[in-house]
Inverse folding.
């Protein structure tokens, strides 16, 4: 019977009864999906967080949409708690084959990679925006409406000299709706926040004491020129210890384990090593519990912005205009006139990646102290 099941109901899965266990065709709880939108944004956690305002753009464009997001395994926990994402699809070739059997009203192809662009172009949709794939195998705009967005990938002049818009604004332009300051969407659970409180307690944070997180990682394996040197973090920690009563916390992921261990040994009681093995949402909750986060242009910076934590963001080879802080904190930009350049290795840079080391600990400390001075009190007591 072709009308026995309502496959477009938000509650229908096809492999188990819905919560109401009703006969589908006669169910009074039928909730149609509405316009179906697929976001293909797979790689780089920071880029995924920066792209989350697009869910607001979609909801402005469509009434009650069904939003599906395809992402890599590491990003799945960040999207599972997003209240505006109805379906999270973990990227794999099997998932790619399955999604090609579906139809969407809109596919947003945001990943500048050949495989993801090819997939997006094969999905049946009323409209495709973002990246497509030319018959030569090169990335190309998905259509005329995507040309400005695509140009930022292929024109240094457009991206580094002309563009003054954040990634959020660029995505709203792509979808074709007005941007009104919509922020990142990053949610943690009660268990994540409880873990963060335990970490702070173990780090010796006293009740009512403010905290400054020093996110020591840039993206060394992929983009080493974004790193702020370890010696600058040492200088910063010592200055902040002298000028504030905040508890200083070393934070990072598995790639920063050895670095943070070494920094903690050199700093002694000045700073606490919070560990580098937290689950991704637990890490976000930890940043959310801090009063200030200092970070290069990497995932900790974007996660802290998503958690509404004031930040001091450090920028050298990457464009600061694309990263909003929504009025909470400061962006400190290299004074070298050759940046931004997007050169990833010191070997490829004629200045040996001098832009990030050129940002002084004193300048960063002044920004942190000013943020602490303006705050009303600790975010977690």
């Amino acid at each position: 019977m072709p009308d026995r099941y309502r496959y477009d109901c938000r509650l229908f899965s096809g492999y188990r009864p819905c919560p109401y266990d009703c006969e589908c065709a006669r169910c009074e709880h039928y909730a149609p999906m509405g316009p179906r939108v697929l976001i293909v944004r797979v790689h780089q956690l920071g880029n995924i967080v920066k792209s989350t305002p697009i869910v607001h753009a979609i909801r402005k464009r469509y009434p009650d949409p069904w939003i599906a997001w395809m992402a890599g395994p590491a990003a799945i926990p960040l999207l599972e708690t997003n209240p505006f994402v109805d379906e999270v699809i973990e990227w794999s070739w099997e998932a790619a084959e399955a999604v090609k059997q579906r139809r969407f009203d809109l596919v947003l192809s945001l990943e500048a990679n050949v495989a993801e662009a090819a997939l997006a172009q094969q999905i049946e949709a009323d409209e495709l925006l973002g990246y497509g794939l030319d018959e030569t195998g090169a990335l190309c705009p998905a259509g005329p409406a995507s040309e400005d967005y695509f140009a930022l990938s292929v024109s240094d002049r457009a991206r580094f000299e002309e563009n003054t818009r954040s990634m959020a604004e660029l995505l709203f332009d792509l979808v074709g709706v007005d941007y009104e300051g919509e922020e990142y969407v990053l949610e943690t659970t009660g268990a994540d926040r409880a873990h963060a409180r335990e970490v702070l307690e173990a780090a010796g944070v006293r009740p009512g004491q403010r905290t400054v997180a020093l996110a020591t990682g840039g993206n060394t394996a992929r983009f080493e020129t974004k790193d702020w040197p370890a010696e600058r973090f040492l200088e910063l920690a010592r200055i902040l210890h002298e000028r504030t009563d905040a508890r200083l916390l070393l934070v990072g992921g598995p790639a920063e384990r050895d670095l943070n261990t070494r920094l903690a040994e050199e700093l002694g009681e000045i700073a606490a090593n919070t560990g580098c093995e937290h689950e991704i949402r637990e890490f976000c909750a930890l940043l959310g519990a801090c009063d200030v986060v200092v970070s290069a242009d990497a995932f900790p910076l974007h996660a802290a912005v998503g958690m509404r934590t004031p930040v001091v963001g450090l920028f050298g080879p990457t464009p600061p205009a694309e990263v909003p802080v929504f009025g909470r904190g400061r962006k400190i930009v290299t004074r070298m006139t050759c940046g931004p350049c997007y050169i990833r290795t010191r070997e490829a840079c004629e200045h040996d990646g001098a832009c990030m080391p050129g940002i002084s600990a004193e300048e960063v400390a002044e920004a942190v102290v000013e943020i602490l001075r303006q705050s009303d009190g600790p975010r977690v007591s």
In short: The CA atoms of residues 204 and 272 lie 8 Å apart. The two ends are 60 Å apart (CA to CA).
